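Before relying on records like the one below, remember that each one covers exactly one chain. Contacts with other chains, cofactors or solvent are not represented anywhere in the record.
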Amino acid sequence: MRQMERHLLYRTLQTLLTETTGRLADGVEFNCTAFGGESAMGVVLDLIIERYFDGHGREIKLPVRQLAETVRVRPDEFVRALVALGAIELASNHIKERMIQIDEASISETGTLVVRIRLGGWLTYQLESVCQPEVGLRVSQ
């Protein structure tokens, strides 16, 4: 069951990455206002999701150069993809939020650009829903 939910989540995220406006199956409306960085949005979002599932939580620090090399994009493409992901706005029941929010960008003592992001409530809820154990299932004894 969880595999199917994960598949549906990835299909929903694909819609968010390829369309500029629309309505998702759950009634949430979305609008993307940024242009540029679209080519790397998918791999950067995959990396963000992977880090979330690895236990980094809702607030994630991203060392740009290191992670850009991991997903095989240039650092400037990585940053543009983060900005484009941050420009995806979701609205439901008169509540608007960004899919991700860029909270801070700083340069470490070693000269590394580090961007701190925070996942929006909708994305966090969706990710939690696919990683929670099934309720009501029992292991046979």
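Confidence is low (pLDDT under 50) at residues 134-141.
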